[in-house]
Amino acid sequence: MNDLTFQPLLFGGDINVYSVARAFHEAYGVKSVAFGKFHTFPCAYSSIIDYRTCPSNEDPDTFLKNVEEVCREFSDKTVIVLGCGDSYVQLAAHLKDKMPKNALAPYISGELMDKLINKEHFYALCDQYGIDHPATVIYDKSMGHDFELPWDFPCIAKPADGVAYWEHEFEGIKKVYICQDRQELLDALDAVYAAGYPDHMILQEFIPGDDTYMRVMTNYSDEQGRVKLMCLGHVLLEEHSPHGIGNHAVIITEHDEALSLKIKTLLEGLHYTGFSNFDIKYDSRDGKYKLFEINCRQGRSNYYVTGAGYNIAKILVEDRLEHKDSPLVITENQSLWRMVPKKVAFDFVPKAYHQQMKTLLRAGAATHSLEYRKDYTLGRIWRVWKTHVGNMVRFNRHNKRPEN
Asked: Which residues contact 183 (CB under 8 A, 6 or more apart)?
């Protein structure tokens, strides 16, 4: 019998959703309800998720209808509404005032959400708060091919509005374009706008360095806008496939007080509430950490935080439902998180990190988002194994093995 006073309701169907559902299950033994567009692994076939397929999930009326349905179903509980993708968190932020009284959507206003998700506005905020980011040019379609860049190639190109961008998919679409010369950049821009994308593109100087120069920072800000948890992850390996480029595959948690406090100042200056997630890269040329973007939610790799001992479901429930006033925690303990088999991790992470990885594995300070014993059934074990094999194939196809 579930005597909890809340029911998690998640939107999405990827590893982000599964990781959040796992955090809730680990902390409270509760089965999350999740709405995804397709009946696919990892959320389908899970014993810790009541997974419901709804192809029109991203339609505002349908989204609200699904929230209302679950709120009626659990009318005696607070339904915690969490988006696990940008489109869903935007919907939750804009529609939270229209949700039933027993719904809790722990998000900032829709107006602030739109501003932060748009990378153009985000970089302006970074400048305002003295936070470093890559050299940037905002590209408008009207500029055509008549523009110059104040840096040499390679160059990064990515959409200012990621939600609008993925509404105009086309053959060869990528999350981020790494252009080696001007013609490659022009071809990418032409293809994006030919597909109907309506907003600006962000053109940025490429910061040198492999995956190990990347960092990810996950934070939680309470209902009053005070930052309560900051967990920095040192990325050791990312995906390099066209659709998955930049997705984290191996992370070790680490501590950097100066970087954490800079981001804390930004979040508290904005009176931000809820989860936030920053993509960051270390620039060895000037010794500075440079922010790429903010996600107004927990990131895809959020289980690296729970796996390190800071359960993200627990901190949310303790703040918004139990109203506990906890102190700020900037995490210090080391933990290894991965989304790939050990063989892939050791094959593609530079050898300089192997001993540290082995030490954490031997100490039991290591996790894999999908490897959850309390959710093991024969069908699920087979699907996890199939995912491992798929990752072996994908990384061998798209990633380069380190030279050292």
From this structure: none
Tokens, residue 348: 């593609």
Phi, psi angles (nearest 5°) of residue 82: -125, 125
Cα–Cα distance list, 156 to 139, 208, 233 (Å): 12, 11, 23
* This prediction's pTM: 0.93
One DSSP character per residue, 312-324 reads: HHHHHHHHHTS--
Query: Pairing state of beta strands 32-36 and 49-53?
Result: parallel
**Tens digits of pLDDT across the chain (404 residues):** 368 999 999 999 999 999 999 999 999 999 999 999 999 999 999 999 999 999 999 999 999 999 999 999 999 999 999 999 999 999 999 999 999 999 999 999 999 999 998 888 999 999 999 999 999 999 999 999 999 999 999 999 999 998 899 999 999 999 899 999 999 999 999 999 999 999 999 999 999 999 999 999 999 999 999 999 999 999 999 999 887 888 999 999 999 999 999 999 999 999 999 999 999 999 999 999 999 999 999 999 999 999 999 999 999 999 999 999 999 999 999 999 999 999 999 999 999 999 999 999 999 999 999 999 999 998 899 999 999 999 999 999 999 999 87
| CA 141 from centroid of its chain's CA atoms | 28
Could you list the beta-strand ranges (E) of 46-106.
49-53, 78-83, 103-104
- Integer angstrom CA distances of residue 323 from 224, 225, 316, 393: 11, 13, 10, 47
- Which 8-state DSSP code applies to residue 168? S
